[in-house]
From TrEMBL, chain A:
Record key words, sorted: Oxidoreductase
Entries under InterPro entries matching the protein: Aromatic_CoA_ox/epox, Ferritin-like, Ferritin-like_SF, PaaA, PaaA_PaaC
Lineage, broadest ranks: Bacteria, Bacillati, Actinomycetota, Actinomycetes, Kitasatosporales
Species the sequence originates in: Streptomyces zhihengii
Encoding gene, per UniProt annotation: paaA
E.C. designation(s): 1.14.13.149
Pfam families: PaaA_PaaC (PF05138)
Molecular function in Gene Ontology: phenylacetyl-CoA 1,2-epoxidase activity
Entry protein name: 1,2-phenylacetyl-CoA epoxidase subunit A
Automatic annotation (TrEMBL), chain B:
Pfam families xrefs: PaaA_PaaC
SUPFAM superfamilies: Ferritin-like
Name this polypeptide is given: Phenylacetate-CoA oxygenase subunit PaaC
Domain of life: Bacteria
InterPro entries xrefs: Aromatic_CoA_ox/epox, Ferritin-like, Ferritin-like_SF, PaaA_PaaC, PaaC
Region named Disordered: 1-21
Amino acid sequence: MTAVTTDGYQAAFDAAVAADERIEPRDWMPDAYRASLVRQMAQHAHSEIIGMQPEANWITRAPSLRRKAILMAKVQDEAGHGLYLYSAAETLGASRDDLLDKLHTGRQKYSSIFNYPTLTWADVGAIGWLVDGAAITNQVPLCRCSYGPYARAMVRVCKEESFHQRQGYELLLALSKGTPAQHAMAQDAVDRWWWPSLMMFGPPDDASAHSAQSMAWKIKRHSNDELRQRFVDICVPQAESLGLTLPDPDLRWNDERGHHDFGAIDWTEFQEVLKGNGPCNEQRITQRRRAHEEGAWVRDAAAAYAEKHRTAQHTEPGEATA
Amino acid sequence: MTSATTHPTASPDPASAPGTASATARAALALGDDALVLSHRLGEWAGHAPVLEEEVALANIALDLLGQARILLSLAGDEDELAYLREEREFRNLQLVEQPNGDFAHTIARQLYFSAYQGLLYKELAAGDGPFAGLAAKAVKEVAYHRDHAEHWVARLGDGTAESHERMQRACDALWRFTGELFGPVEGLGLGSEVLGSLEAAWLEYVGGVLKQATLTVPERPRRGAWAAGAGRQGLHTESFGRMLAEMQHLHRSHPGASW
């Protein structure tokens, strides 16, 4: 009986996915689909939150007030994206506290890119152009993901990310056209961020554990290598108009393929960073954990206050004379 | 950015060279420095807040203040020259806003004291027809949000747990001595002692009400005096301020004349 019913649900689910319909929180879905989405959305949310750190590193040193305002707004947006994504994950029965706990204890991952350090101001621009650019290339197809809440979150996130990406590009352009020292700073940042950005698309197709199933479920629409190629093809002319070079001697246009060929990615480095041995893994997670632990008394106070005033008749604090 | 020499009211240091800059420029510098410095302090919280919603809220307040600072500093000269090329003795901000963040209660106490002051001051300026009326009318809306945010956190922390109560009380006490300066004269603003006195009375009534509602005790120690802190408007600052400026200005100063 149960098996028959589940089969019916499974058939309805499969038909909805095949017809490009959206799966919504109250719809039946396979356990593995749910688990896979929670894993992906949590990792995405964690990446937004950890991703605040390398950029926040430069807020207090931004070289002009205009740039400082742009950077602050961007880091604020990232916290907002984290909030959207945790909310979207909660529609699948996960809880934000639990997901954060998994991040803090290393049981869930975040994007490996944020384990690289921001050493100069130009890194802020390189992150905007390359890292956000790669993120957008990955995320735009997610706007058509089969799970409704994730797809809708991505529509909002992508709009803001595109804006950040243009700002990053514009920051690099200002440096590239600035003094020789500024130009060198920009080139150095692009040299350091190019390969890690290409790694953001994940392992090559023949080594990607989750890809085939995610594509069958229409969570993912394109393979890692397809998206990586698309990104390279977009970046090459942009680098040219920036007046900067990309650090790959094998990069060249292939007329036959209609794409750029590019050099081999150092997958050993990628694996090391994933394993926690990148330049900033320890620092990033320690800072996140510390912020959470040092904030515990604040969250406890808010909970105690809410509890006390849940039933008690009280005047809103805002009613004190102003 | 644009060169200061093309700006009619610009001077490398309008505040410390009386007579070379207009009264408006001197007042704009004092109010702009308040907003600039507090915005910077709040920016230090990014990635360190106790809960994600506060990452958003603190950055939001910092951005509002930075927006105010940019408008105000532009009235006094070139915003970047003024922010990045003055030394600490030339800054005119209140000592309150330069105080280090401390714990979350400390940051919230500082915000309550300052936002209450700024709200009252801007309301006063918005009601007049002086050069700051337009700016103040816009800013007063932002400040009302900042003040509410601080006020609600003072209530939660003061009336939360025993630990949060103690931390909130300690923070209110520690910053109290910097609050007398809020109602000192601001050069060029043209507010007489009578107006300042009434702003101070309204501030004390409001802050006292918020603290009491939060089950906290209004600090009894002096708010001003010969020994007390409170000379930021004269360019006399506390020790941590120089370090804050060193961090803020380092990159800009390392590339003289560069555009960003």
